[in-house]
């Protein structure tokens, strides 16, 4: 026998006071992030929210990357999310990186390509993966370093995008390993020159210091 129809009135329905704000913030986050798979991303969003982890949310809506054939690949905004989630650990397990990558609805083929290029194993040094992620977005060393500065900087958006000289040195040297056309003595000479400029900027480097450089493309 079917249960009798139940009549509800406003007094009988209890709506948690925090629910409207949770749904509002979720909707705004989804609009900014534009996930390719809304359901998969939503599961990651609420899981992170409930555990107090960094949310898989872009800081702002991004325009499509001109070099991408589809809108499903890595973008600066998504790389910044991964950096916030994984950089505090220094070294991350490949399985966790794969999970975070999946939560952002990114193609597994692109992740495998970066891992293969970096010859990464089970444990991955995050800053090295981050550097190759910037390379995957931009191609040339100069534009990759500019992207890295814009993601890593503590400056406000639209500012100088400064990063510590030591961080720049690591990224520059690491990416040059995959280029192979710049001799070590030239690398050392350039960094020594840039170090003098950084001293005038409280030990910081910004894109204006190096965007005039011409660099060949990194491997795809």
TrEMBL record:
Family membership: Belongs to the ropporin family.
Main location group: other
Gene: ropn1l
SUPFAM superfamilies, per database record: Dimerization-anchoring domain of cAMP-dependent PK regulatory subunit (SSF47391)
Intracellular or extracellular location(s): Cell projection, Cilium, Flagellum
Provenance organism: Acipenser oxyrinchus oxyrinchus
PANTHER family per UniProt: ROPPORIN-1-LIKE PROTEIN (PTHR14952)
GO cellular component, as recorded: motile cilium
Keyword Ribosomal protein belongs to the record: no
Transmembrane found in the keyword field: no
Protein name per its UniProtKB record: Ropporin-1-like protein
CDD domains: DD_ROP
Entry keyword set: Cell projection, Cilium, Flagellum
């Amino acid at each position: 026998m079917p249960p009798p129809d139940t009549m509800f009135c406003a007094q009988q329905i209890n709506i948690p006071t925090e629910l409207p704000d949770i749904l509002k913030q979720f909707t705004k986050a989804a609009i900014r992030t534009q996930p390719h798979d809304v359901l998969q991303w939503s599961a990651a969003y609420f899981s992170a929210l409930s555990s107090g982890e960094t949310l898989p949310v872009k800081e702002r809506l991004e325009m499509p990357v001109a070099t991408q054939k589809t809108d499903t690949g890595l973008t600066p905004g998504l790389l910044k999310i991964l950096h916030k989630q994984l950089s505090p650990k220094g070294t991350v397990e490949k399985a966790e990186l794969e999970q975070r990558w999946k939560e952002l609805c990114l193609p597994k083929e692109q992740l495998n390509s970066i891992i293969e290029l970096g010859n990464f194993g089970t444990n991955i040094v995050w800053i090295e993966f981050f550097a190759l992620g910037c390379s995957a977005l931009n191609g040339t060393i100069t534009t990759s370093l500019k992207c890295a500065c814009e993601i890593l900087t503590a400056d406000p958006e639209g500012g100088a995008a400064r990063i510590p000289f030591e961080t720049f040195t690591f990224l520059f040297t690491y990416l040059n390993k995959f280029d192979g056309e710049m001799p070590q003595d030239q690398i050392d000479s350039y960094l020594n020159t840039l170090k003098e400029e950084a001293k005038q900027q409280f030990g910081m480097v910004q894109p204006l210091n190096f965007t005039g450089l011409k660099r060949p493309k990194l491997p795809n």
